[in-house]
From TrEMBL:
Residues 31-50 bind DNA. PANTHER family: HTH-TYPE TRANSCRIPTIONAL REPRESSOR NEMR, TRANSCRIPTIONAL REGULATORY PROTEIN. It comes from the Bacteria. Residues 8-68 form the HTH tetR-type domain. This is TetR/AcrR family transcriptional regulator. Pfam families: TetR_C_6 (PF13977), TetR_N (PF00440). Keywords: DNA-binding, Repressor, Transcription, Transcription regulation. InterPro entries: BetI_C, Homeodomain-like_sf, HTH_TetR, Tet_transcr_reg_TetR-rel_C_sf.
Amino acid sequence: MPKQVDHEARRQAIAEALFRIASTKGLEGASLRDVAAGADISLGQLQHYFRTKDEMLLFALQRINGLADQRIRERIEALGGTATPRDILRECLRGMMPLDDKSRTGYLVGVAYFMRAVHDEALRGLAQEGIPQLRAFFADQLSRARADGELAEGRDPEDEAMRLICLVEGLSTYIVLDVHTKRQALRMLDRHLDELFSGRPPG
């Protein structure tokens, strides 16, 4: 009787092999052949699931984002029903930063994919998809804070939501480049949140 292949498990094994290679050699050094060897399958078997490196990177990016979303949800749930908008936003923003080996690898996978997206219109559309939803979620939390009098006066939730996304992207870049330590980056994030949720007008 032919052996049954768990295709989803095979795809996950390929993604894990890519993560391992990315954490040691970087993504540019992760060829399809290297990833196939890391997943203990043939190149032909890998190409049955991913015809190109871009397809493989997209799957890896979606896998990493899914794991990050799960970690963030668990952290928010652990805060309990009394979590404030600031608490929720801080957990989300921390979850987006490369603060451990897994999130660092995830960040580098994202960077590699986004670099390809700059020169490929189809990939660019996929890369852009999550930003409006993330901005809307952040803006909703900031609107709640404004209604409760916690947000600094003169702050627009939509604009501030995008500023938070940009802030974390910048801090993440400088963490992986060793410009800032993780502790320094978190301190800057907290300082910005302190100002944003001060209930005072922007200085």
